[in-house]
Amino acid sequence: MRRRRWQRAAVQAACVAITLFMGVPLYLIALAALSSRASLNRFPLPLLPTEPSTETMSTFLRSTGVTGGFLNSLTVGLGTVVLALLVGVPAGYAVARYAFRGRDTYQLFLLLTRALPIVVLSVPLARIFLDAGLYDTTYAVMLLHTALALPTTVLITAAIFVGVSHEQEEAAMIFGASPVQAFLRVVAPQALPGIAAAAMFAFMLSWNEVLGATVLTLNQRTLPAQVLTTLADSPLAYRFAGGLALVLPALVFIAVMRRYLLNMWGTTLR
Amino acid sequence: MTGKRARVPAAVLLIAPSLVVMTALFAWPLVVGVGQAFSGPDGPTLGYVRRMLDDPYFWPAVRNTGLLIVVLIPIQFAFALTMALLLRERPRLAGLHFYVWVIPLAISDLAAGLVWLSVFADRGYLNSVLDHLGVDGYAWLSYQNTTTMFLAVVVAELWRSTSLVLVIVVAGLQGIPKDYDEAAAVFGATYWQRLRHVVLPQLRPSLQVALILRTILALETFAVAQALTGRSLPLLVGETYQWYNVLQNPNVATAIALVVLAVSMLAAAGYLRLLRDRTAAR
């Protein structure tokens, strides 16, 4: 009995230790980004928020390219969500509902595309977009991110549609609904939370992607691309503020998506 | 019967847009890329490949990328398995722990690099803590201290990317019926025996997926190193970025990218083969 208690304590302690390892860096970047420039120049740095200040953050937000980058990131992210859902949801529905020839090949193709390194696509795409007059536009980045998000969108939505009862859909059609009506009235409402999760996944992927966005743009940088390309000549305070700006959406995203995480990264990957 | 026949075109119609988009944005760039890497203004050439191989940064980049994978991935899998097994013991506040452990799933590698920069910078938090303790600071990220620079990248990557493995392993564990494990316990198997002979074999499919994914993603590591060390620790994808953005040579950049692609494919095929052979032999 005592041994058992000892084990429980060890498990708790290990969990707390890991949580500290994962959490403390987040605390530190927030602390750094919310300190005044003067206190960032001091050494040793204070470990507690003794002089909280928005100076570092607001200087970062006022730097050239940051507001524009923020807006571009938002545009690209939302565009990616719309495109990925428009193309991906029908495909996911087909994979879930129809046993068509080549379905396995199609799924394998999806998995293969996930394995393609982004870097292999970005540089040739820059050439293609240059020829097409799309280079250095948010559309170019949007298209790249759609391609990256699409395989996962199809796999996630397929998993969701499998979970929506087919009988209800057929019943609606027996009572005279067209397939489209049956989909919109019966299937879509049930699948909506899952589709929202897929949308957030696409947005997050786009928000975080940096290499492709850097390669495909010169002036229309997204926020991470802007931070990356100015990294070498910017002061530490700017980098810390940029770090926090990039991390904050992640906290919200995971909090909202916790229910779907296991489905998304866990089971649908196979 | 007629109903079934009508369904086939419907399915094809529904997946057609995705096929078009993916062919246009995956297959076409690949073809263009091979063209960029292997043909110059006067027809086919190996000049770009030679330039890539002669670049003084190329082989260090290959070595660092390989070393990163070899060091990071075993530690990462041990770490993720530990985390998943701890959660299985249903500790108090399990929900909170899990939330904090998976936050990095949504953090980009650039952001992770910046987060750890605040720790490892010369006047950063680690040296501040050391100073409070009365120990002299250390230039963790200086190009003279290659080992600590490399370790800083490993720690940052471990922090950022282990959550992906964790989520896959936790999902895998949920799919395993508890009966076998309980039966083994009834017959007196120790915790380690059950782990080794009951749980891990059933987790193999999940581990296989995670291993392939993580190896491919680790090959693409770039912004973490960029944020922490600049070009002092060259990595393959970082070199593509250098050649493209700084040296403005898309041809050599594509040649390096194709190396990354080839290694990714080899790694994936290798793992599949290795893990299948073992299963077949059992």
From TrEMBL, chain A:
Key word Transmembrane helix present in the record? Answer: yes
Q: Where in the cell is it found?
A: Cell membrane
Q: Where are the transmembrane segments?
A: 12-34, 70-96, 108-130, 142-162, 183-207, 236-256
Residue ranges occupied by any ABC transmembrane type-1 domain in the UniProt entry: 70-257
UniProt entry keywords in alphabetical sequence: Cell membrane, Membrane, Transmembrane, Transmembrane helix, Transport
PROSITE patterns for this protein: ABC_TM1
| Pfam families in alphabetical order | BPD_transp_1
Q: What is its main location?
A: membrane
Q: How does it sit in the membrane?
A: Multi-pass membrane protein
Q: Kindly list any coiled-coil regions of this protein.
A: none
Q: Which family does it belong to?
A: Belongs to the binding-protein-dependent transport system permease family.
Note the PANTHER family from the entry: INNER MEMBRANE ABC TRANSPORTER PERMEASE PROTEIN YCJP (PTHR32243:SF18), MALTOSE TRANSPORT SYSTEM PERMEASE-RELATED (PTHR32243)
The protein depicted here goes by the name Carbohydrate ABC transporter permease
Origin species, per record, is Phytohabitans maris
**What lineage is this protein's organism placed in?**
Bacteria, Bacillati, Actinomycetota, Actinomycetes, Micromonosporales
TrEMBL record, chain B:
Q: Name its cellular compartments.
A: Cell membrane
Q: Which InterPro entries match?
A: ABC_transporter_permease, MetI-like, MetI-like_sf
Q: What is this protein called?
A: Sugar ABC transporter permease
Family assignment? Belongs to the binding-protein-dependent transport system permease family.
Give the main location.
membrane
Tell me which residues make up the ABC transmembrane type-1 domain: 62-271
Task: State the superkingdom.
Answer: Bacteria
Q: Where are the transmembrane segments?
A: 66-86, 98-121, 149-173, 211-232, 252-272
Membrane topology, as annotated: Multi-pass membrane protein
Family matches, as CDD domains:
TM_PBP2
Q: Does the keyword Transmembrane apply?
A: yes
Q: Tell me, what's a Pfam family for it?
A: BPD_transp_1
Keywords annotated in UniProt: Cell membrane, Membrane, Transmembrane, Transmembrane helix, Transport
